[in-house]
Write a structure and sequence with these properties.
This protein is of the alpha/beta class. Helices cover about 25% and strands about 20% of the residues. It binds flavin-adenine dinucleotide. InterPro entries: FAD/NAD-bd_sf (IPR036188), GMC_OxRdtase (IPR012132), GMC_OxRdtase_N (IPR000172), GMC_OxRtase_C (IPR007867).
Amino acid sequence: AILNNVAELNKLRLTFDFIVLEGGTAGNVVANRLSENPTHKVLVLEAGGSNEDVMEIIVPGYCTRTSPNTAQSWNYTTTPQTALNDRVLIYPRGFVLGGTSSINYMNYARGSKEDFDRIAKVLGDEGWSWDSLMPYRFKNERFNLQTQDNHNITGEFDPKYHGFNGINTVSLPGFPTPIDNRTLKAMTESTEFPFVLDMNSGFPLGVGYGQTTIKNGSRSSSATSYLAPQFVSRPNLHVLLNAHVTRVLETGPGVFRGVEFVGNLNGPTLHLTAEKGIILAAGSVETPNMLLHSGIGNSSTLKALGIKPLHNLPSVGQNLTDHTLAFLSFMVNSDNTWETAERNTTMALEEFAQWNATRTGPLVDFPGSLFGWVRADLEGKFPDPAAGPNTPHYQLIIGNGFFGPPPATGNFMSILPALVAPTARGSITINSSDPLAPPIINPNQLGTASDVFVMRQALKGILRFASLPAWSDYIISPVGINFNSTDDELDAYIREASVAAYHTVGSASMSPRGASWGVLDPDLRVKGLTGLRIVDLSVLPHIPSADTQATAYAIAEKAADLIKESWGYL
Ligand SMILES: Cc1cc2nc3c(=O)[nH]c(=O)nc-3n(C[C@H](O)[C@H](O)[C@H](O)COP(=O)(O)OP(=O)(O)OC[C@H]3O[C@@H](n4cnc5c(N)ncnc54)[C@H](O)[C@@H]3O)c2cc1C
């Protein structure tokens, strides 16, 4: 059942085997899988509210409206980013059931085989390799063979890389955009941007059809899928909304099976204990924040802040890694772009009415059909930052309009580069002993010379792509730079036009058993402690070269098996 307040929970007088701290992308997967065993009583505590009836969440075409500065987002900001002219960036995360899977842009991308084989090698644990994670990707995925416009999808994906019986629906685009055919034609005009049949095969290089977590024209999040009515009605699964967790608590020497939370920010502090274990799945920003406030982190820093150190793990909050996105638009010779609907209320209402009546039309998709995964020419200047030669350095996000509020006049298309093999590392730290105070978020965007160089090469690559004959009667000019900008001009543009991609990972990373660094053993247990596992993207020692939700789901499916195994059933 889903409960809205602590009074409802108290009335039930329940005890729990597992308490899953937070109903986000990964947390809901674990809650679902652990409650498959009817003898296991599972509670999820989630700070945010319900995902139901929020149109910005449900309608795919509205996905860019879910954040920032909405009731469904932790409206964080970063520290001034040195490489980005000291700009403070917005840094949203989902504050709602489903977590960031309820507010993200739904792109489903797994990264490369080499990404995960590198992680397995670093950890000395084959269980994290690409091949070992494949069954968990399949357990998560329910690939949808029908699109909203019922077009023939042969040649748009490769079925052998997909799961068809999982829980979370993944679909191909259901409404072609007017620039799809030109993009496909451009691919035939240059060997630099070949067509890739399926970017989720482990070998993503090329440009191909995007896959998204959309079910029949509406968002599929961990809340709508893993907590669908047939699951959340299990008598042994309870989800408490509006429960802000402040700390995990020591219940015996080195044993953490307690949790402290508040049911509303001015209300009393409440405590619960799990018989078997606590699963911390608050995401890469809040998980390290919560560990630090619980006394798990660098003991001397915690002591200086007035927090009683309970377990010295200096890596907590370190190694935070994120991708970087640069906005890049082109003025085009067409009026069939997003701007036209954005400037015309009647047309926007018609699009919504179409979606509402038949789940067809432009709002059934993330606003874009094709994505690219490309390697940059490093010109021998830097060691390869990618996991291997089949792994991209940057992503192309192609859209039929201007991302963000459009200028008053003109029509546009966007080809955004996202740096997906960053070398910079950031951190989550705290400067207060108040667990309700926001953490200090420093993703250190483009924080190395190598990252700035690769982003510059990405911009040059996109300018080459936009110069191909397929675009000659369509693209008028880039916005903010031009086709022959100098390196200095491109760098100046990058520092102003780049933002975080919100693919945050790594801040409570696994490391090999017995290592002097890291926060978790490869079985996701906090090093040196009993009763506490972490299951979210903070656990990754390296960032995959793709959007991150597919990996959050795979980690969580694997974690559920690890937990079940340790309690003697699978
Ligand atoms: C705007 C945006 C767009 C994105 N687009 C894409 C995309 O298109 N494709 C993609 O693959 N990835 C995308 N991502 C990233 C991706 O969605 C996330 O990496 C992933 O969902 C994170 O999963 P998680 O389980 O680690 O954390 P989350 O899903 O964030 O779960 C954490 C949960 O913990 C809760 N929580 C945190 N602290 C507390 C507390 N103290 N007490 C109680 N509850 C708490 C949160 O409310 C949340 O529900 C996007 C991210 C953003 C922000």
